[in-house]
Structures are given as structure tokens and as C-alpha cells.
Write a structure and sequence with these properties.
Blueprint (H helix, E strand, L loop, with lengths): L10 H24 L5 H22 L8 H25 L5 H8 L2 H12 L7 H18 L11 H20 L8 H24 L9 H29 L1 H4 L2 H17 L5 H18 L4 H8 L4
Helix pairs in contact: 1-4, 1-9, 1-11, 2-3, 2-8, 2-9, 3-7, 3-8, 4-7, 4-11, 5-7, 6-12, 8-9
Amino acid sequence: MTSPIRTTMGPAEWAMLCALSLIWSVSYLFNAIALRSFAPLTLVALRLSLGAIALWLIAGAVKYPFPRDPRLWLRFVAMGILNNAIPFTLIVWSQQHIAAGLASVLNATTPLFTVLVAHAFLHDEKLSPGRLAGVTFGMAGVAMMVGSDAFAGLDLTVGAQLAALAASLSYAFAGVFGRRFSATPPMITAAGQVTASSFLLIPLALVVETPWLSPPPSPEAWAAVAGLAVLCTACAYVLYFTVLRRAGATNILLVTLLIPPSAIALGIVFLGERLTVAELTGLLAIGSGLAMIDGRLLRPLTSLHRKPGP
């Protein structure tokens, strides 16, 4: 049984969600760098195994007990498949054929899938007009920011784009399934699911890609792997499961709507890029969509509608 959650997020949850979006927006850049030296399954296996080591070191430092319940570990395996093994592999593979920005935009469909999956499987996250309108606004904002040029030649990379969308669907099921860990500390949940998925991916990568036969990776590729493991996996999943436990599946996966604007912000700060009118309009639409899903934007209108007349 899942514990009740707050569908409206407070300042702390929003701060964690924004931090998570910044961290995961960098992961697309790290993937692009690491793929120059590593095959997709090998890259994902390294990210997960090194991330698991980092998480258990942190968990041990703060004296968290090691989980020994076999039923809990079975849940970790299921969560690792849905939240790590499937989507990480699909996204990394897709980035061999489509740009990182397009991959992040396709990943921004996750809240739409999540609203539908949560409605089907969770009693306290049912579909409402506000949430549906919010997701629609958010998706429209992403489309505005990217523009039609990003989808030029769509017919040449259909498989990669479908893979990115399938990753979004897997994330949606993971967000719903992750509600089962409400009684488990976020640090242990993160470490358990990453560990389980690493044990699945390591033998698969060794058999399929035989990485020892490849040329030695560059220092930049190893640095990107380290960033993926420590920042984008270990640190990110502690934030992920904290917000999931507090605010639910639909709210935590709003992070995928925040990743494209985060990527643009990083480009402005570090690459001297400019914010266009279309991108600014898209950011405003995404912000409105997030507020609608959170319930704050529509609350005054609802109160006015319910107020009795004279």
C-alpha cells in the first residue's frame, strides 16, 4: 500500500525538482562525450555500477543499515529495470542517431505518459482537467522552444526517436512503481535500484559489446562517465526519491519538462548563447503548465467559481 502524498508541492520540493533538472540536463552532454569512446551498454553499465558504489559509500558514511529483505530487493530489481536499465540504454542508443537536445525534448513527454499511467494505477493521482491542461501547456512550450527545424529529417531517425519515447514511457511506469518505496529512505532506494540494474547490465554489456576489444577511452570520456555516475546518478536519485516520496509520481516527472529550459540556461551561461523570443515564449508556457499541474494557477479561478452569488 502506498502512503498519501501532497499533490501540491512546496518551495522545498520545487527547489529539489529544479536542481534535479539541472543535473539531468547535463547528462545529455556527458552522454554525447562518453559515446565517443564507449558503446551504449558499456556506458550505461559503467554509469550504474560506479553510481552504486558512490551511493553505498554515502549510505555507509551516514550509518544507513544495509537492506536484507528479499522482497525489497525484488522491488529494487523491478525499479532498476524500469528506471535505469531500459530508459538509460534507450536514451544513450538514441543519442547515437539524434541530437542531445531532441532527445531531451522527446523525454519531456514523460509527464504526459505519467498522468495517464498514474490515473490507471494510483487512487490518489487521478486525472484532472488542471493536470491535463498543465501537461498540454508544458508540451506546447517544449515544442515552441525547439521549433520545427529540430524535427527536420524525422523519417531518417524514426527508430531513435521511438526509442526516446519508449524511455519516457518506462520512466512513467517507474514513477508510479516507485511509490512502493515510501517507507524506505531515499538514499537506500536509490542505492538499491541502481545496484540491481548494474548487476543486470554488466554481464549484458560484456557479452554483447566485448568492451576489452575496443580502443582505450579518452580522459574526457572517463570524466564524462564519472559525472554521469556521481552527479547524474548518485546525487540525482537521492533528490528523485525524496521528491517522489513527498509529492508523488506525476510531480516528480515534471522534471522532464524542466530539462529543455535548463539546457538552454546552461548554454546561455557557459556558451554565450542567446534566448530567442520563441524560447522565451516556450519557457512561459512550461511555467504555466507546471503551475497548472501543481494546482496553484487554477486555484483562484476554482475558488471564484465556487463562491456563492449574492
